[in-house]
Every structure is written in C-alpha cells, then in structure tokens.
Amino acid sequence: MEEKRKHITENKELSILESQENQLQTLGVDLLKWQNARLHHTDAYDNKSLIVRRGQEFQLKLMFDRELKDNDKVGLQFSFGDKPMKSSGTLVAMTLRSQQDSQCWSAKIANTNGKECLVTVASPADAAIGKYLLCVKTGADVYKPGNTVYLLFNPWCKADAVFMPSDAERLEYVLNDTGYLYVGSSEKIFEKPWNFGQFEEDVLDSCMYLLDKSGLKQNFRKDPVTVSRTMSALVNSNDDAGVLFGNWSGNYGSGTSPLAWTGSATILQKYYKTKKPICFGQCWVFSGVLTTVMRCLGIPARSVSNFASAHDTQENLKVDIFLNECGEKVDKLTTDSVWNFHVWNDVWMKRSDLPEGFDGWQAIDATPQEISQGIFQCGPSPLKAIRSGEVYLPYDSKFIFAEVNADKVYWLVKNVAGKDKYIKLREETKAIGKNISTKAIGKNMREDITAQYKFLEGSSEERKTMEKACSFLRCSDMVDARLSSSPLTAGIQLKTDGEKSLWPGNPIDLKIIVNSTSAESWTASLTASCQLQSYTGKVEANLGFIKQTVQTEGKPAIEIPLNVAADTYIKTLASVEDELLIKVNIIAEVQETGEKVSDELTLAFQYPSIKVEMPETAKINEAFTCAFVFKNTLAIPLEKCKLYVEGLGFFKMEIFDEGDIRPGGIFKSKIICHPKKAGEKKIIAQLNSLQVKGISVEKIIIITE
C-alpha cells in the first residue's frame, strides 16, 4: 500500500515537472510601432512608445520559448493608473481566442510562425483614452515588458464621438502642427504665426500628465465633452496649478511676456519638466496651447478669434462703457469690458448628452474670465446653440452668446451739484462679435466663420434668436431697443479722417468732421479724447483731449484737428510690456435740443518687418543656415530688442539678445538648422522691444528625403 502511494506521489511530481517544463513562456513583445503608427496616423509623434487610436485594430508580435499549442492559454492585459482594477475599467484583460465584440476589447491570433505569434488587438470606439501598460499572461507566467501603449481619440473612426468625415478637415484640425492666431482689431486684423507642435517631444506626455492630474475616472476619459471641458480648466493655472499663469498687468519681468511665445510646445515641455505653471499667458496663448492639447489627444480643434468681444458679467447682454466730460473712458465704473479681440477654441464632437441637432463644433475657452461650476473653465457649448439662441444648453452658452451678441452702451458721466449723473449717449447693436476668424482648411489664410456663430445683423433670424436668448437672460427690453431708433432733430453726424495705422514715433494727426443733414443752424459742444489702451480695453494713459464749440450754420462739414505729439505716448509704450493701441472718443452735444452724438475710432500701430533668408528646399540630415534681418525704419530707437525664433523639426525656441537698435540700424542673426523630418516646415520669428512688441514673421521650407 505504501509503495502504491509512493508511486502515485512520484507520478504527480513528475507530472508537475513535465507541466512546468511545457509551460509556455513569453520572451518578448514587438509592438510593431512604425507599422501601427502609419495606419493610426500617429507616425509624426516624437515618442518611442506605441501610439494608437481607439476603435481601430492594431497588431503586435509575441515571441515565446516554443511553438504555440491549441491548448495554450495566452492573455493580454492593458492597465492604467496606480491601482488598476477590472471593476473600475482601469484593467482590461482578454484571451487570444476570445470572441470579438465591438463593445469590448478583444484580441485574436492573426498568424503564427514558429515561436512567433502575430496578434490583432481591437479597442472599442469609446475606450478610455490614456497611457496603458501591457503585460502578457501565459498560464501562471506573467511577462511585463514595460511597454507603454498610448490610446487616443480617433477622428477616422465612424463610431468615435469625434469622427470627422473629411480628409481635408482631419489634416487641418488634427494633423496640422502649425497655423495662425488672429489678433488686432476688427478694422485691422493681423495674423500671428503659431507652432502648435502637438507631435513634439514630451507634449503627449504632458497631456497625459494633465489627464492624470485631473482625476477623471475611467468612464469620463471616454467622453470628449468631459475631457475638453476639463482641459479648458487645466490649461490655466487658477484652480489646479495648470499649465499657464494668466497675466494682463503689463509687467512680465518675472517670466516670459505673452507676446514672446511663438508656439505651444516649449510651454508644455517646460510644464511637464517642472510640474509648475508657466509664466505668462494671455488669451491667444491659452488658445494656442489648448489647440495643441486637443489635437494631441485626437480631438479635432481650431483656434478662433472674435473681434470686438464682449465680457458681459451681468448676463444682460449689455456692456456699459462710461466716458467722463473730457470724453475719456473710465474703467472703475464697470466690470464689463469689450476686448478688441479674444481668442478661444472650437472642438469637434457629437453631443450625445444633448437633444439631437447640436453635434459638430463646440466652443471651449481656457482663458480664465468667469467661474463655471466653481472653477475657471468654459464650454463645450455647441455653435448651433449659440447661433440659434439656445443659451440654456450646457456648457456656458450664455456667456459665449454674449461675447458675440451683446450690445455696447455708452454713458456720459457728468458732475451735477457734486454728484455723478449718468446720461445715455448711444447704444450700438451691431458693434460686438465681428469678423470671427480661424485659419482656412489647407490654406495659409484667414477664414471668416461669423455666420457659424450668428445670423446676419438686422435679419429676421437674428431677431428671433435674440428673442429666444433674452427669454433666458436678464435682457427682456433688448429686442425692442434694437428695433427702435428715432432720428435726431439736428441731424449731427461725426466721423474722423486720417491714417488708421500709426508708425511708432510719428505724431497722431486726425481730423474730426462734423456734418449736419439739417439746413438750420445748430450749436454743438464737441469733446474729443485720445487714450492708450490694451487689447482688453484697459486704459494705460490719457494722451489729451480737446473741447470746442462749433456752429453748423448750414455748412456741409466742419473740420477740427486732433493732434498729439509722439513724445506724449512713447514713454507709456516703453513702460508697458503689452501691445497697445489708440482709442479716440468723440462726443457732440447740441445746445438747442440737448441731443448727444458720439463716435469711436481705433488706431493700430504698424511696424517694420523682419526678413528671413534661407533656401526654399533642403534635405533631411543636411544642415542649412537661416538668417533673420531687421532694419529699424522708425524715427525712434528700439531698446532691449529680443528675437525669439522657433522651427518645428529643426530647433526649439532660441532667444537672441539684440540690444538697442538706433533709427536706421540693422541686425542680422543666424541659426544652423538640422532637418529631421520631411514635408512642409515653418520657421517663426518674433521681435519684441520696449517700444515695439509683437513683430512676427514666418518662412516656409520644403524638406525632402
């Protein structure tokens, strides 16, 4: 009996040893990075790991210690987070012989060749995006190669919420790593070249760090609505030590001036390295970085500029502007403002959380202006909802609707018996939300998308939209006000004549023209002021004003000169590190009737240009020289000049300290470029000085293999 038990025990031990000897073991994993990257449109990322898009198959090759048998059990696991669990969706496990299901992850054997096995993996079109770790399980053996797999949104997949049907649109809004941000004013729009750089080194890891920092649970990482809203909060630093610290003070000595940035990559790379907010940003920088983050994660995105953009803090669709008796704007009387331009973002996605009809472009904004649900975040708000006045729909549609539709109300503040009296001068119903702009698809030019945000001013559709929106806002009298306007008895009209652009160092020479359509004689008290303001409407300096009494006496036109010497504004230009512009406000009060007429003019500065000298074509791994030449054609010296240059695929941002440049002076700076990637590439340069800010230039070069 004892011999029989001994024999059975020996057989079991022998069986275990044989089983261990036959146990399949994984020796290696080839993620077939380049093959998968080309098929998933991720080959441009400067990242050594596998990057794939959800809802689309990818392949990997497993290497075993022996040939695969039919009874071998092989499983794959993908996990993310510190404590991955199946119950939370942060651990995905599948066997190679599992049935494929479009709603779940699956893996199947595509081919075997000796000890190698080609495996096809499929993720669902609503899988959580993130940074997954891969391991291979064969029986009791678990192989952890340390391979990271990045999973992104997929605009090429019809089942993905961010699906975009047009190849040209995907090329522009997902794959294009350069573009333009539009700045200036509605009268004079400037293009600001910008390197989005979503494929540059560490940019993807920076985005993944932001995702982890957000604390979004797995189920919310599936949803582009939640992800885009979260990123609008994380790109600013106000609540969560996010990417950019906003600063509109005009003093940027403790960081980088917002005007100095030429692209997003340097900002995100610095943030990823330090894990601290980068100083400093303003609206176009926030928008540029958010475009980069969205495109990097696979959400189609574009930067959008709204000219004459309202910041309505009272939800009444009115922005109040107060002028004193000299015609000068008084900032302290209102929290409302009109920005000459404001740059935000549109992202493309389905809105399954809303009623039908609101898919497509959604507005989001990372500039910290107003608190939404407790933190500084904004959107996504459907453009179709903004256009149709459906301002009750999430998120922040009321605020964005006001940015493009508010009325501009001018008030005169008069001192009467020691107290301020507020007299309404005029209400402009068509002054807000002009020339809404983005880069055109496949072209280096501006596209006007105003019609995507609002109906034509004065149209019946616009009136219906306003009626609908006002029913949800504090502006019940607004539609009637827009329709009612009574002609003035005196028929006084104001306009200005002169150059609408000004070279720094030149005097301001304008003519105020007073016209009267009435044959009668009228006496008008005229006041005109001239101020230096930032693009957000902040008054930096009062440059002077004039007061004069004029009599029409049947004259067709009366001309009144408004002259300001250059010395009056040059010192302020040099003391404020923002790009400024000149605002002229004119008020005329008819003494006989008490009627008041007012007008406003914006003057932008214009600057000498930078010339870029480099070949039109070059080859990979063959160095070439790029030179930047600048001549100061102004009548004033430019002090503390700095040149910022950046070339994606050539070099990271470089700074040249050019010192002071006298009138007529020239500098020439060179940089050696080493192209690493083929295709159309851009080099961007930006020049800042104490007196002049934001001189931009770009140069395109074709790199061949």
Give a quick set of tags describing it.
705 residues, alpha+beta, Immunoglobulin-like, Coagulation Factor XIII, Chain A, domain 2, 4 domains, six-stranded mixed beta sheet, six-stranded antiparallel beta sheet, 14 helices, 39 strands, metal ion binding, EC 2.3.2.13
Question: How would you concisely characterize the structure shown here?
Answer:
It comes from Alligator sinensis (Chinese alligator). Helix content is 19%, strand content 40%. Strand 35 (638-647) and strand 36 (651-661) form a beta hairpin.
Give Rg in angstroms.
Answer: 31 Å
Q: Fraction of residues in helices? A: 10-25%
- Sheet having the most strands: 6 strands, mixed
Strand content: 35-45%
Measured between the Cα atoms of the first and last residue, the distance is 80 Å
Question: In CATH terms, what is the architecture of the largest domain?
Answer: Alpha-Beta Complex
CATH topology-level fold name of the largest domain: Coagulation Factor XIII, Chain A, domain 2
Give unreliable regions as ranges: 14-18
Average of the residue pLDDT scores = 92
> Based on helices, strands and strand pairing, what is the structural class?
alpha+beta
Which overall shape is indicated by the principal axes computed on the Cα atoms? Answer: elongated
Q: What's the number of structural domains?
A: 4
Strand segment count: 39
Classified by CATH, the class of the largest domain is: Alpha Beta
Number of helices: 14
Could you give me the name of the CATH homologous superfamily of the largest domain? Transglutaminase-like
